[in-house]
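Section 3.1 - Work completed
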Amino acid sequence: MTLLDECPRPGDHGCFLGCILLSIAAQAAAAGPVPRFDEVPDITYQDAAVFREVFDGAFEGTRHVLLIGDSQEVCPGGAVDHYFVRLSAELFKRYGNMPVTPWTGMRVTYGGGAPWGHWLMRASSAAPGMTAGRVPAEDLPPRFLPSKTSTAGGMNVNDNQAYGYMVQLQPDAASSHPGGGLAGRWTYFRAGGGVYLEVMGATHAESGEVQVRARPNDVPAPNFFVPIAGTYVTSMGLRDEEPGIRVERVGPLPMGGRRYMQAEIAGNDPGRLTDVVAARYVSAVDGRGMVLTPIAEGGYTSASLLRHHSGCGPVLRAMGVDAVMISYGANDAGQGFTPEQYKANVEALIAWLRESISPTLPVILLTDGPHSLVTPLGAEYLARYAGANHQIAKGDPLVASVNSRALLERAGWTQKTNRTFSPDGVHYNSEGSRLKASIEARILFEHFAPRRELSHVRPRTLCVADFDGDGVVDIFDLIRFVECFESVACEDERSADLDGDGFLDYSDWSMFMNHFEEGCQ
């Protein structure tokens, strides 16, 4: 018997959620104390097959995962855009491809540095353009603004709108946060001779349809005046009195030999308004891989999504979600949420997500690292959120819990060293982002795609610290590693990039020193 079975599901979300919270409270009273992160395993799950379908399955076809959290997960506009970028890069490193871009909302200009670009995308909202839409804000995910449009070009019912919303595909992530170290480094998305654009719209009794004008460009900066290579109009049937969310794929949009596709999104009828919710690009060439769409906002806690966006379930369902990752903690601890309160909030969120998206939705719980600004009591609460996630996974066969906090501690990110990875005590810098993303991806792929994990890393001795391969861990291994790390003398079959992420950084140094000090025992 699950929470969804016990609670009725009327149209009133408040009644359903109230029942869920009461059920969770009753279960928590009998569950016993919540353990600390150093008292639970690195990863907890009941059925690996549930998550292998997601991770191993993405080697054969597209898997779309929502990344739900706070300012650590927000992109664009978050305090640490590069954590999202680094986690996306960890997926690319394993799959060798990004089949789609994240979903992005309308009306927000990003990619010029304030804020940095979304992963694989840059966007521009020029005035007069889209205006505040008719969809209630609580019916949209965080950072997806209500947006209405009419035809681009002026003389229309949307205040004579002149410009559509411009979304530029950047296969090389040219506008992503430089802290990620990935902008322009590789081609992540295979555009080939053309790409598709998926557009999401909301129905209305007097709605128009969506018009997309393809404007391929040679430079990674939006330009409304490059020639139009093709015009497309959706047939979603958005003129409907029944409220609803609909998606249509248009294209392929012709690249014409250009590097960066631009899609100018507007309405198709100067006498009608159209509510556009989101858009994303889809590769017409390669569908392998996994993409993350961040559903997050700065300052959010485990209770915020339900509190402020309880009606956004239809939008999430329309996104085509295969799994979700949930990562809260710093703000919960800062606001004094006990481990029991945090656990109840996360369980209520999971129940609502399954009601909204799918009753068999797989969920992966991640934890934050240390936090230097909370009170001693808040720090103790934060240390037990991993235990709360562990308890949730022990009771739910569709949940996996990654004890990121314990993994970070062993990699050298402790309360004492927190400012090295988090200068303000809360948000990750580039080193913190790389370390957290790499250890989370590594353990997930080790358990849920074991045949594929680290297949790109050259074979080497089983003991990381036996760097010279002579079967003995001694000072000569340290000397050889330091030389290789500093690129003074590194043989072809050796690499100081121990975590295989393409960078020589603190993560590699920490991994070697931990094994060296322990003698690989």
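Second construct:
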Amino acid sequence: MGIWSLYFLAKLGLYWTQRIDLHWGLNLLLALALAWPLAERRWRLLRHALALPLALALLYHDSYLPPFARLWGQAGALASFSPAYLAELAGRFVAWPVVVALLVLVVAFVLLHRHLRFATLALLGLLSVPLLPEPGFWARPAQTASNLDRADAADASALAPSQLQSRLNAFYATESERAVALPAGVPPAFDIVVLSVCSLSWDDLEGAGARQAPLLKQFDIVFRQFNSVASYSGPALLRLLRSTCGQTPQSALYQPAPPQCYLFDNLARAGYKPALLMNHDGRFDNFAQQLREHGGPGIEPQVDNGARVAMRAFDGTPVYADDDTLARWWRARVADPAPRALIYNTVTLHDGNRVPGMSSQRSTETFKPRLLHLLADLERFVALVQASGRPTLLLLVPEHGGAVQGDTVQVSGLRELPTPAITSVPAAARLIGFEGLAPATAPIVVDKPSSYLALTSLVAGLLPGGRMVSREQLETLVRELPGTNWVAENEGTVLLRQGDSTYVSSPQGGWMPYRR
């Protein structure tokens, strides 16, 4: 096997440190083919030539990178990235501890290959894989019935793939029957403003040390386990725009839905004038076009090109300042007495943004300053709404996290797997200018798994009371908000939580435990 021993030993090291998966059968076949003795040199050279592309393809297959077909399908989008952002992304895949370990392995091979049979070590290592527990078993807490959901307490850590698929199918069947109807014949007495923030999760807040940010403490309701379901912007906004019905598979987002499922259509029938405002042009990945085609009647994304440019996106397009964009919309809004429902989509926190004047242009290093600036901008907007005296239901609904910290499976910024660290977002609600609502010292916390249906249920529950609601009434309404079991989805990839266990179904098929 010769130097090919290093390939398999390195992969075993990456596998046991949970940096890659290991398709055991394919790796063993390749190792046996390379270890098979060949007498003639020309045949050995031919074997090396054939093995090299196969080994590279197998390494990619073992990695947690997106399937090659999806990567190829996104080639047009990747081509729009600026050279500086592409260089930054490439640098994130270089883990210096891994590089050092590989160099040590190479040096050891050079010094010891005449005295130590590295091929034997590689084969023994491969053969031991199915005989040993999965990587990370030493760090996983033991499952007990007390820390599992009651419905999943029966052996949730050892569910067969067929059982997982059955539970997923049952989940979608249940969700297809759920819907929220906004009350008819009730004139809206308050505005609705939804702050759709790209790239903000609880994990991102934790990493930036901003989990206790002043803005978050001002909300009346905070959802601690809100699942945005998607890890990319287009599907996340489509789920919000179809949020009066239960959760659907991602493929269904691009098919017509029943009329009662479209949020803007429901709000328009309730007496609102809906609007969707963005602080970017929406051209990347046909974002705005997706919303027009699949978001339901009345969707027309708007961009205020007169607002101040705050930064440049990863593709060089302008990103407009949040405070200026929102203030300009609000000044135009107060001139019209009709009730408004606004979804404001901001990409200020998106990976790859470049901010003029900052000492570093690496987006991972500018994330915290951008986050603090965004929160300050939103505080100024809240103060503007308060000063106007107009009753307003303000909803914070991040699209997904930015994966700023990354993990052992996905590097920073990679969101192919919709993990809880990415889809668990700080959704919250604030009732501004409502009568009868005494200021609270702490928000009402929703600590059960929830998703978009809980937000539309909140709107439906508040509409009959107009601008009048007491703290007791609000607490009762929040207790009755529907929960949603945790299923997140990306194109071809589904993540299913069962108790304390998390499983992933990949585009290649089959279920596997998710090991962070």
